[in-house]
Amino acid sequence: MKILFAGTPAIAVPALRAVAASYMVVGVLTNPDRTAGRGRELSFSPVKDAALELGLPVMQPEKLDAVFRETVRKLEPELLVAFAYGRIFGPRFLECFPRGGVNLHPSLLPRYRGPSPINAAILNGDTQAGITVQSLALEMDAGDIIMQESFPLTGKETAESLGETAAHRGALLLVQALDRIAAGKESRRPQDPAGVTYCGLLDRDQGKIDWKNSAVHIERMVRAFDPWPGVWTAFHGSALRILAAAALPDEASDAGCPHARADGAPASGAPRAHRMPEGLRARDSGGAIAPATINFLSESDRLRARDCSGKPTGFPVGKAEDLERKARFFAEQKRRPENSDEAEITPGKVLGVDTRRGILVQTGEGLLAVGRLQLASKKAMDFAAFLNGAREFVGSVLGDTK
Fold first, then answer.
1. Are residues 36 and 117 in the same domain?
2. Which of 134, 164, 195 is the endpoint of a domain?
3. Is the pLDDT of residue 334 over 90?
4. Within this chain, do residues 183 and 165 fall inside the same structural domain, yes or no?
């Protein structure tokens, strides 16, 4: 069976290699070369690089017009195989292929039709992802399903790592589907209209953090937009990229908390807790992290935390606090009256640092521990190295452009 392969980014390379190892690929269709980098040097697509390595003819038309369609017909391909080519094929182009076309899509269609299904699965906190081999249709990602495979997600995947998984698993599934098509034994089922969802193109602005969102959502953003468009905020007027982060677990299940539930979530009607986690470390007057016996951080006025009922509580200012005072503080915190009039939390405020998990930033719901970050025009750093060069970071409000 003669195949014309269409694809552009790195995620399509394993599929190209797998198809070329099993079938005759008469040509590889990919996007035209683009200039990139400061030197504006011409850059090949990953699929073009792989095709040249495999000795396959490469085609890079600006348009799939009549002249190009005639070029394709002369190659006598039987089937079009596409994976992330980047364009929708029109009816006259699809007529060049007696067996039609198939498309490999990295989602469990009909969920996440569109160009960013991997990012969408991570951003929405899905517990499983998958790959689908579908018939090419005139409507985007709406073709009949030929084969489909799902796999679980751990909640630690980035777009890059999940893309690699989908690329390699998809390549194997694609060859299985082609084997069935070649033998005339494939089955096709229409997509369920009730399950259709869509995902759109990504742009840089989607990576801007709104600190009013929850820590869980922002942590998913960090993974979903890695490596592009990246997640960023503002610090003293400069862009600050967040490269690794973790949403801290809800502390509301501590013993003695009247609003705690067995599963750690607040009881019905209770506000979310935003208490400081264990392991907070203080900084000395020079801004350096103090010895291991120090447990609390100070700000210019006082740190704000939330007690187990969700009420704000003042975190005392000072240098070193010993373990006994720490225990007394949390005991007092649980006895704080319900009508406390302390100031409300400030989303985006840098509260301190947990030496095991990172810099602690208040969000609209919960704390985000930032483990790795990068200031504009600077190199990426882990949180400890970053703080050594940014002594004023603790107490600042991220996202504030003033």
1. yes
2. 195
3. no
4. yes
83, 15 contact by CB (below 8 A): yes
CB 214 within 8 A of CB 363: yes
Residue 319 has pLDDT above 60, yes or no: no
Q: Number of folded domains in the chain?
A: 2
CA 170, 175, 176, 179: dihedral to nearest 10 degrees?
160
Cα separations (Å) of 402 from 53, 225, 237, 398?
52, 26, 7, 10
> By the 8 A CB rule, do 27 and 59 touch?
yes
191 assigned to some structural domain: yes
Tens-digit pLDDT profile for residues 137-154: 999 999 999 999 999 999
Domain that holds residue 305: 204-388
> Among the three residues 172, 195, 218, which one is the final residue of a domain in this structure?
195
Q: Are 113 and 86 in contact (CB under 8 A)?
A: no
Q: CB-based contacts of 66: which residues, under 8 Å, 6+ apart?
A: 92
Q: What is the CATH number of the domain that holds 37?
A: 3.40.50.170
Residues 188 and 245 in one domain: no
Angle of helix 13-22 relative to helix 46-54, nearest 10 degrees? 20
Residues 136 and 244 occupy one common structural domain: no
